[in-house]
Write a structure and sequence with these properties.
With 274 residues, this protein is an alpha+beta fold. It has a four-stranded antiparallel β-sheet, covered by helices on one side. The radius of gyration is 20 Å and the shape is globular. The protein binds a DNA duplex (16 and 16 nucleotides) through loops.
Length: 274
DNA sequence: CTGTAATCCTGCGAGC
DNA sequence: TGCTCGCAGGATTACA
């Protein structure tokens, strides 16, 4: 599941392959992705445009183009966004192929089509619109505002961490790993969390995300980086997907429950509900 | 405000 | 061996 660390890895991988390259051709499958390729009123063109920069915000990638436009990409659940030699065989579920001027191709592949690729005419406006809809980047959380936000909320912590308008970029895996690291139960409500525990949670999120980026993200099944390499952080999971296995701290069996429709893994001894 | 559930979609593994 | 079923869960929306 591509979350912030996976998307960041794709951005880092793609920068040396894409920045300065010009798009010379586009091939597209007929199958619909989550959002329209040409959003209403955004008609512009992509052929002949050069990639100026690649930006990541939360789980979104934005390719800034010459001519003022941008390509906005979300990997959804199973999306892959890779730069490969044009001679590489095209795999099933490839929905976009962008030919580049150096003999490589930028490809978007997504079996379940929860992802999207959209072309916007105004890069600046697109960046601003994203910003207005998203909360803090984990490495840019305001500590006092974070604590206030948690303590003013009656929602359970798991739901709060998945809320992209609060902290942006955390998904199911890193929410569970962060809560374990902060020793907080996923069903504890924000109002019940002490100031000190809020600080621990904020730091836990930042550390988990940073460690995951260092390991190039997590590959459960589908995820690969921008050069096609799998991630490595799945080998460092403390709780996610480890139901019944021993807690790394106390060896108690990890439990899984459903919170807001999502599987939530935790140690019943280290993470007591408050 | 908060919560629940449905929606989009395919692949895979469990169970029979 | 081949079938059905449940599950995976990011973002959004409808509804209680």
């Amino acid at each position: 599941m591509p979350e912030l660390p996976e998307v960041e890895t794709v951005a880092r991988d793609l920068r040396p392959l894409l920045v300065g390259r010009t798009i010379t051709a586009i091939t597209r499958s007929k199958l619909k992705l989550r959002n329209p390729w040409w959003p209403a009123g955004e008609k512009t063109h992509l052929l002949g445009r050069t990639v100026l920069a690649i930006h990541r915000r939360a789980k979104y990638l934005r390719l800034e183009l010459t001519g003022g436009g941008c390509l906005l990409v979300h990997l959804g659940m199973t999306g892959q966004f890779t730069g490969v030699p044009a001679t590489a065989p095209t795999e099933t579920h490839t929905h976009f192929v962008f030919d580049l001027d150096d003999g490589r191709q930028l490809r978007f592949r997504d079996a379940r089509r929860f992802g999207s690729v959209q072309l916007f005419a105004d890069n600046t406006a697109t960046a601003a619109a994203l910003d207005s809809q998203l909360g803090w980047e984990p490495n840019d959380i305001n500590p006092a505002d974070f604590t206030n936000g948690v303590r003013m909320s009656k929602r359970v912590l798991k739901v709060l961490l998945l809320d992209q308008t609060f902290v942006a970029g955390v998904g199911n895996i890193y929410a569970d790993e962060s809560l374990f690291r902060a020793k907080l139960h996923p069903e504890t409500r924000g109002v019940k969390v002490s100031n000190a525990a809020c600080d621990q949670l904020r730091i836990a999120i930042q550390e988990v995300i940073a460690r995951a980026i260092e390991s190039r993200g997590s590959t459960i099944r589908d995820y690969v980086g921008g050069s096609g390499l799998r991630g490595g952080f799945q080998h460092q999971f403390a709780v996610y997907g480890r139901t019944g296995e021993p807690c790394p701290t106390c060896a108690t069996a990890i439990k899984v429950i459903r919170v807001a429709g999502r599987s939530s893994h935790f140690c019943p001894k280290c993470q007591r509900k408050k």
